[in-house]
Amino acid sequence: MSAATGKPTIRRVPPAGQPLIEARDLYKRYRLSRQHFFKAAPTVLAVDGVSFKVAPGSTFGLVGESGSGKTTVAKMLLKLEPPSAGTLLVDGMDIFAQDRAAERAYRSKVQAVLQDPYGALSPRLTVGRIIAEPLVAQGRMSWKQGESRAAALMDMVGLRSDGLHKYPHEFSGGQRQRIAIARALSVDPHIIVLDESVSALDVSVRAQILKLLEEVQRKLGVTYLFIGHDLAIVRYMSTDVGVMYLGQLVEIGTAAQVFNRPLHPYTRQLVAAGSADTPIRPLGAGGELPSPINPPSGCRFHTRCPHATALCAQQAPALREIDSGHQARCHHIEQIAA
Amino acid sequence: MSLLSVRALSVEFGPRGKPVAAVAGASFHVERGEIVGVVGESGSGKSTMCSALMRSLPDSARVSGDVVFDGQPLMQLSAAQMQAIRGRDLAMILQNPMTSLDPLFTIGDQAIEVLRLRHPGSHAGEKQAVELLRKVRITAPEMRVRQYPHQMSGGMKQRILTAFATAASPKLLIADEPTTALDATVQEEILSLFCEIRDSAQTAIIIVTHDLGVVRRISDRTIVMYAGRIVESGPTRSVFGNPQHPYTQGLIGSMPRVVDGRVELNSIPGQVPRLDQLGSGCAFAERCQHATDRCSRAMPLQRTIGVQHDVVCWHGDGTPGVWREGAAA
Amino acid sequence: MSESPDARATGLLRRLRAIARWPLRLARKDGPPALATLVCAALFIAALCGTAITPFSETHIDFESVMLPPAWEAEGAILHPLGTDQLGRDVLSRLVAGAQVSLLVAGAAVIFGGVLGTFVGLIAGYFGGVTGALLNRLTEAFLALPFILMALALVSALGPGLWNIIIVMILTNWARYARLVRSEVISIKERDFVMLARIAGVSRVTIALRHVLPNAFNSVAILAVLDVGRAMMLESALSFLGLGVQPPSVSWGVMLADAKSFMGFAWWLALFPGLVIFLSVLSFSALGDWLQSRLDPRSGL
């Protein structure tokens, strides 16, 4: 960060070829409260063997519905929850095997912008303090210095810096999200986790924020983990995409691959549901989303899949590569594509 | 004769000297068996308008205008007459399915309550409740009637609420943001359900939403609202294919779409003005790239530029705009 | 990390202004209920000035003017507007002196009990774990004990007197704050801005003090205002039972106790203390209600 102008500097590019984020076989199991005295507490496998790589400066989109586990993956990347198994590497280092100092340093590497603009900003702090807080918390600056940097950041995200002394409730949803982005940028992070960061905003405001995020990435080379349920938006923002269903990655590839030629039946359903040209089918074709506590046997999607066979109920398919980096988890990909 | 005919509907709040118009001069009509989508963002007035139709606004709201529903002047009906219509001929599904059901009673109890209200003297019981759930394709309805709302998913709750609302086969159903809190695949089911309701009972549906994709797929006609006013309305294909109002164009452009293999997105600069700070001219003028002096000074008049396609803009004249149509992303 | 003293002063000033802005904002529209505010204001003035503003001190015995009824009665005297008691002591002066005691005891109970309870609740709710569970059990234990019994036990251990009464009130009061704050904290903890503070690297203690506690403050303030009235009533009850302040100190409860024997013919000796207790408690309750309606809808203001 340039002390002279207070403006963040461009990221240095790490050694070519090495992914910035690498997830290897991540698992996360939660134990729920005991329902019956004599039975063991039920567990939920929120994340089931998820692996992916994210190149520096790119955006990795994670798509899925509620219960898919995508938010849990985000929490692991943010070190809010440790995985039950598997490793998560950032810049080649296992983030769950860090000492105190490295852990503190990690907080300046990864920041987040969350879904709810009304809950993300502490109601009793001024905007200047909210934006400057990460800097002060990490011991990089005093409050006064932090607040002047906050003014520069507000400019960068398209807000007037005279709002420094205002309180969050004086701003609209879109403006609050900009404040949240400014706060995330304050420590010059390498990675920003965007968890449904535009879902709660009006359509036109959404577009503005997406363009802002794009611009920030262009100027600063930040890497994004972009989580969403709106395919069009994920497609717009992402370089690579992973589709999750009940804790598993069912499809992964570049955005062009996954959206132009979706392989997995679930992805195909999502793509069809998101397209304005799809006619509305008569009822009965769907089925309920299974409970994550009691996932279906074999392929988790088989209860809702129009192409399911007996094999699908018995044997869980593995993620296999169909086409240069494009992988899908299904027994019958070739038949479906045909 | 239209099922619902609304003329110059206005809803005002605040002191009489300085009123704030949540809805100003809305005029539209809904035919039997038609699905009309009302699109708008925060502050557009779409939800207030629907509450005004149901006459469920607080006493502090001042409603004016002409509303004729099924031949009856809706605003002049007495409370008792309104009570008779509400729930039977005119039904509404509120925004958040999560909180619309009473957590203390089983689904069955609530279904029976609704059925007895809709068909007084019918002594509806569990059997009828099960049938009601079956109508909206809830699996294992015999089990579901004994369960409590917290045991249901959002999609199921929405379907149950839709079932309650359509129990008496209303002539008009108003659905306020029916798909907002739901996952994509569940949205599909709700939309299918609406189509089925329309087909089987000739129920007209007004869908209020900010999701343009939903409106595009399901509605026969589209109404676009901005800052309390209707700025464009017409057959869906016409409104989406040849949007005339710059706001509609901007809104459609705000959805990512695939053009020549690339995904494009345009944004509208600025933000929605505060309703208490509107001037005398077009509310969209300050954000509009085509705006002229006249736009900020005088409120544009409504113009018909196509088959039933109306737009409220000084510049809308039917020629296709700058915005390009592409396949939705 | 060096900041000029000027800068620090401006920062402090700004923060003080922000805090001061809060009650001012309250005073503007939807003002507090007029009568309640007047009564409370009168109480505060009485408590502050004490018998300096009354013609007599509360212990001034005057056998010439024993058992005088209020001034508007036949035998009353203007000098003793509310009458005198069996020792010729002026009732009005004693009421004012009693206000001092009542407000002091109630205020101390609420403030110290409130601060203690808030911190216990904060620790129990935010940090949780074994400590939290223990603190929670402790809170529940204190809540389960009946007030009068506890007061009796403590007074017999510590003896009566002003400060001991204050201690008793604190010990019997803190748990209500602890319970309230703990439940507020547990729900605030889950909100996004707390998670984001963790992500930003803020230490847990700082999060608790900077983000969680201020947002629980509204509920605590409402409870505290309602509590003052309750505390005043409890102090009166204790004093009435003889467990509170001892003569020559006077409190409303003591006045009531004294009046018991004379109620048949000297009705003014019981009426006025009782009326004052009633009005004070009612006023604080009304203020508390008003505060609640002002603060609650705008959550986290």
The structure class of chain C reads mainly alpha
Mean pLDDT of chain C: 84
> What is the number of helices of chain C?
10
Determine the number of helices of chain A (DSSP H or I, runs of at least 4 residues): 11
Short description:
The complex is a heterotrimer of chains A (338), B (329) and C (301). Chain A is α/β, with parallel strands linked by helices and 338 residues long.
What does this 3D model show about the protein?
The complex is a heterotrimer of chains A (338), B (329) and C (301). Chain A has 338 residues and is α/β, with parallel strands linked by helices. Chain A has a domain at 21-30 and 41-243: P-loop containing nucleotide triphosphate hydrolases (Rossmann fold). Helices cover 31% and strands 21% of the residues of chain A. In chain A, α3 runs parallel beside α5. Chain B has 329 residues and is an alpha/beta fold. Chain B starts with a strand and ends with a strand. With 301 residues, chain C is mainly alpha-helical. Chain C has a single domain, classed as Orthogonal Bundle (MetI-like fold). Chain C is built from 10 helices and no strands. In chain C, α2 (34-49) packs across α3 (91-127) and α8 runs parallel beside α9 (252-259). The longest helix of chain C is centred in the middle third of the chain and has 37 residues, at 91-127. Chains A and B meet through α5, α6, α7 and α9 of A and α7, α8, α9, α11 and β15 of B.
